[in-house]
Design brief:
Protein name: Sugar ABC transporter permease
Strand order of the largest sheet: 1-2
Radius of gyration: 23 Å
Number of domains: 1
Number of helices: 15
CATH class: Mainly Alpha
CATH topology: MetI-like fold
Keywords: Cell membrane, Membrane, Transmembrane, Transmembrane helix, Transport
Helix content: over 70%
Organism: Pseudonocardia petroleophila
Order of helices and strands: HEEHHHHHHHHHHHHHH
Structural class: mainly alpha
CATH superfamily: MetI-like
InterPro entries: MetI-like, MetI-like_sf, UgpAE/MalFG_permease
CATH architecture: Orthogonal Bundle
Distance between the termini: 28 Å
Family: Belongs to the binding-protein-dependent transport system permease family.
């Protein structure tokens, strides 16, 4: 490929990356060291915004909620996605139909899906789940105002719309496992549990790591589904980091763009910290391949 052709192919990508990613990232880092009002130049304040962010108990609660949601949901996605992928992968002609039905929750916009999901728990709409829980426990559960029931509802909703993605990726990984290796394990006397644990899962470890990386990045940015699912998020301590940034930067009458930018930078560092073990393992496997 000639140099001119190479530049013709690469230049659009470089321009898009620079305009939509690097430039906003540069401006975010710059504003994190400034006090910024709309329509005015920022005033340099050093590390003041970072100090305000790190001493804000509300941000600490948002970090706890978001990290707890991420850990619980990623574990459920890996285990549930694997079990569901194994079952769907064994289907015959019905597999495309089953996959199509299961993927509906993934393609529906988050706000729409979360609104429909909330009706299952809302007594005003005759929520089926709420009625069943009331019959079993004998008491009314306050899904939208009680902290822990509301957290469980948010966890279930996040699992509901992300599980099809993890299942689909894991199915692709399962189809790449050699049938000869599985047959050899059975000849050696391995049962179903040992075949999965000692043969299949090690062979798709890179795929599981990819599912974990994508899931962690998505869940740490939880925002829009909280609008219908947790309208009292700030008051009951179920505010995510992204919702916290939105509230302090654009709501609450403060419009603190500098503080919001500082929290954005801290969120990027948190994402990098949580992704590091998985990226390191994926890179190590890529070098060994």
């Amino acid at each position: 490929m000639r140099r001119r052709e190479f530049l013709a192919f690469v230049a659009p990508s470089v321009l898009v990356m620079g305009g939509l990613l690097l430039l906003p990232l540069y401006r975010t880092v710059e504003w994190s060291f400034e006090r910024v009002n709309y329509g005015e130049d920022g005033e340099f304040v050093g590390l003041s915004n970072y100090g305000d962010a790190l001493t804000d108990a509300r941000l600490g609660q948002a970090v706890l909620f978001t990290v707890g949601l991420t850990v619980a949901v990623v574990a459920a996605l890996l285990v549930g996605g694997y079990l569901l992928a194994v079952m769907v992968n064994r289907l015959g002609r019905a597999k495309p139909w089953v996959l199509g039905i299961l993927l509906i929750s993934y393609v529906v916009p988050h706000v729409v899906g979360a609104t429909m999901f909330s009706w299952l728990f809302d007594a005003n709409f005759g929520g089926v789940v709420n009625q069943l829980v009331t019959i079993v426990t004998g008491q009314e559960v306050l899904w939208f105002t009680d902290p822990w029931p509301n957290r469980v509802m948010v966890w279930l909703n996040t699992i509901w719309f992300m599980l099809p993605f993890s299942m689909l990726v894991i199915i692709a990984g399962l189809q790449g496992v050699s049938t000869e290796i599985i047959e050899a394990a059975k000849i050696d006397g391995a049962g179903p549990w040992r075949t999965h644990w000692n043969v299949i899962i090690p062979n798709i470890r890179g795929v599981l790591g990819f599912v974990a990386i994508i899931s962690i990045m998505d869940i740490l940015r939880t925002f829009d589904q909280l609008i219908p699912l947790s309208p009292q998020a700030v008051q009951i301590g179920n505010e995510s980091i992204m919702l916290y940034i939105y509230n302090i930067a654009f709501q609450d009458g403060g419009q603190q763009l500098g503080l919001g930018s500082a929290v954005n930078v801290l969120l990027i560092l948190l994402i990098g910290l949580m992704l590091f073990p998985f990226i390191r393992n994926v890179a190590r496997e890529a070098r060994q391949a």
